[in-house]
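Need residues for this backbone.
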């Protein structure tokens, strides 16, 4: 067993440094860990500005966003929705993340299954929503949130 894995009642667990806890190992969770590691290590996202399993209310229902990225004043800037590598990124997944954004109103939405990414720069005030060809660095994201 690797140092980043342990078992709990016969379930494999992996450590989530964002939540600072052990979580059940699952394909979607592996995607989350890979992406959040990339954001922190390669794109300059401060670990303390990421929230995994962030709870919001959509209408009368509580939902958990997979990852929300915050600015230094803790305003949400980006929402990321993870799927297992076997899951196609379809209209249903896009609708899910846009529903979350009806509450958070962030400038960037991301859906990924670890193999494919779809990144939206959300248009507000008459601007058109467009897709981006790559994940923004944290500094780029901050400039989009202004």
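Answer:
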């Amino acid at each position: 067993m690797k140092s980043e894995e342990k078992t709990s009642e016969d379930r494999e667990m992996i450590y989530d440094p964002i939540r600072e806890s052990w979580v059940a190992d699952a394909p979607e969770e592996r995607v989350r860990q890979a992406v959040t590691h990339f954001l922190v290590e390669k794109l300059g996202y401060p670990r303390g500005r990421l929230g995994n399993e962030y709870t919001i209310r959509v209408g009368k229902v509580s939902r958990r966003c997979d990852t929300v990225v915050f600015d230094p004043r803790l305003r949400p800037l980006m929402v990321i929705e993870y799927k297992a590598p076997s899951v196609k990124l379809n209209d249903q997944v896009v609708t899910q993340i846009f529903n979350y954004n009806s509450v958070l109103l962030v400038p960037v939405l991301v859906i990924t299954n670890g193999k494919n990414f779809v990144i939206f720069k959300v248009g507000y005030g008459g601007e058109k929503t467009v897709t981006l060809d790559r994940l923004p660095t944290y500094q780029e994201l901050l400039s989009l949130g202004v």
